[in-house]
Amino acid sequence: MKNYIFLAFAILFESVATSFLKASEGFTKPLQSVIFVVAMSASFYLLTHAIKVIPIGIAYAIWSAVGIVLISLVGYFVYKQTLDLPAILGILLIIIGVVIINIFSKSASH
């Protein structure tokens, strides 16, 4: 269970990092750039702890899918970006894929 907590915080830090990557405007804003580097470093550090038990492919699938949803929400609410129907459907398919892996795959059991 603690490995999934590590994974959850890795996802959270990755989403923060990606948000600040946009805010850094090509690393021209020092504070936003430093926050990006620190948050991304924390994300990978926590991910290394999560994959001690969770298979790397499963952890990365969860990390990617949840990260996509979170950063899409940040894009919508913070940067006023919208997604069209094909983008929303694609994100839903990614989420469905991760759910299928976690429910039905023997690879996900550890």
Counting DSSP H or I runs of 4 or more residues, the number of helices is 4
Instruction: Report the average pLDDT across residues.
Output: 93
Shape type = flat
The number of domains is 1
Membrane topology: Multi-pass membrane protein
GO cellular component, one term: plasma membrane
GO molecular function: amino-acid betaine transmembrane transporter activity; antiporter activity; choline transmembrane transporter activity
Protein name: Methyl viologen resistance protein C
Give a verbal description of the structure.
This protein has helices at residues 2-23, 30-50, 56-77, 85-104. The chain is mostly helical. It has one domain (2-108).
Features:
110 residues, mainly alpha, 4 helices, 77% helix
Short description:
The protein is mainly α and 110 residues long. It has four helices and no strands. It is a multi-pass membrane protein.
Topology:
Elements: H1 2-23, H2 30-50, H3 56-77, H4 85-104
Pfam family, one: Multi_Drug_Res
Family: Belongs to the drug/metabolite transporter (DMT) superfamily. Small multidrug resistance (SMR) (TC 2.A.7.1) family.
Keywords: Cell membrane, Membrane, Transmembrane, Transmembrane helix, Transport
